[in-house]
Specification:
The protein is mainly α and 213 residues long. It has one domain.
Length: 213
């Protein structure tokens, strides 16, 4: 088990952010990124009315666009997240999908697609969503799906930390206990518990793509 102050990636180098590795065309990083976020994008597609049989095609369009434009993702504001950037791309690709369907004959769903397109392209809601993407317009179902994203990300990084460091993080962040209580349980100082929490959270943000390097 690796000591918490010496986190290492698979190749022995200091762990990079998920996006940094994906930008370098690292196949494993790209696979992790898609595995993490595809269920969330699929949940957005379902909420916006994409037909179940078409979701895989929209997912392919979304992640093709992510691959092409990943180098352009920037955290210009404190609240900027990869999830918010991904939501913009998913929304745009869903609009493209409904535009294609709206040109189909009515019998094939053109009228319904036009109605869906009108809702997605509503200027007022679109403008607001662009300002506050991480929380605006997401349903409780999306929150549940993102919780699964977090759990998968946590599972993927757990092996990089000493067990006591992980327990300190988990008891404070997940169980909601105070640093002092956890310190007493784990024979640590409260400051060390807070450091452990911060280290794991930073690594989690890297894995989710919200820390750029």
């Amino acid at each position: 088990m690796t000591h918490p102050s010496d986190q290492r990636g698979p190749g022995g180098s200091t762990s990079r952010s998920l996006l940094s590795e994906a930008r370098m065309a690292d196949a494993e990083a790209w696979e992790r990124l898609v595995t993490l976020y595809a269920p969330l994008v699929a949940a957005w597609c379902r909420r916006w009315g994409v037909l179940p049989q078409d979701i895989a095609d929209v997912l392919q369009d979304v992640f093709s666009a992510v691959a092409a434009h990943l180098g352009r993702f920037r955290k210009d504001r404190p609240g900027d997240t990869f999830r918010g950037w991904l939501l913009v791309i998913a929304r745009n690709k869903t609009v493209d999908y409904f535009q294609r369907r709206s040109r189909e004959p009515d019998a094939a769903g053109g009228t319904e697609a036009s109605a869906r397109l009108q809702g997605i392209q509503d200027p007022a809601s679109n403008e607001h969503a662009q300002r506050d993407l991480p929380i605006t317009g997401e349903s409780s179902t999306d929150d549940l799906v993102f919780n699964d994203v977090l759990l998968r990300a946590l599972e993927s990084i757990r092996g990089e930390f000493h067990e006591r460091t992980w327990q300190a993080f988990w008891k404070v962040v997940v169980d909601g206990r105070t640093a002092s209580d956890v310190a007493a349980d784990l024979d640590m100082k409260p400051g060390a518990v807070r450091v452990a929490k911060s280290r794991v959270l930073l690594r989690l943000r890297r894995e989710l793509g919200d820390v750029l390097e």
